[in-house]
Amino acid sequence: MEAKESLQKLATAMLEAQTPISRQTLIEYLTGKVTSETSELGLDELESFGIGDSHDEDYWATIIDAAYEKGYLKEKSTRNDALVLSAEGKKFHKKPTSFVINEEDEETPAPDPNNTEEDIISMTGTTGRAATKAGTASGHAQQFIKLIRAIDRKIDLDEYAETAGIPFTNVLDSLEEMVRQGRKVEITYFTDEVIGNEDMSELSDCFDEYGAANLDKVLNEYGDVYSEEEIRLARVVYMVRHMK
Description:
With 244 residues, the chain is mainly alpha-helical. It is 56% helix and 4% strand.
């Protein structure tokens, strides 16, 4: 699919905003959705607000991910997960060239249950955004794309794992790695359902006492009350809440 016009709209919107923008907020900015984030950044007052409202959020998620993978967007090192236009993106804005989205970019193939964790995540991958010079996302960057999209859409994580054909522990591993990289993954929509506020508070107190790094101690203390999956989910939420 030729998407040169869409990339031009994305570049125009980014240049007018003149500020790093998270992936989800960028989608809302392009589609003209007023949220607390777009209002806080003043994006809903810009001329480019809603510049891409002829397409839905899924479409713009694909465009943004492809633009990142091909080097037109980059992460701002001082802000977790916030995107800015790269030098290549600014060059494109001045002189647009062909920007083709491959079919595999638009629709990720279903994973083979016999694949290793690394193979599965490479195919399904949601927020990791490192790109190669050739413009193709590295296997590690591809690791997170599908998961972040699922989180953006507030899809239950166990449902995501079942649909992707992977063990839930793989999802937990990916979440923990994202947090270690400083990514603020918001999964309370899921933990509120499967753990609950009261139990989350109890587990948070335990992490206050032992430290988030001491997972084994927390498992020893509460392993007969909560499953390991619940404790690891709670730890992800705890670490995100305590990020600086």
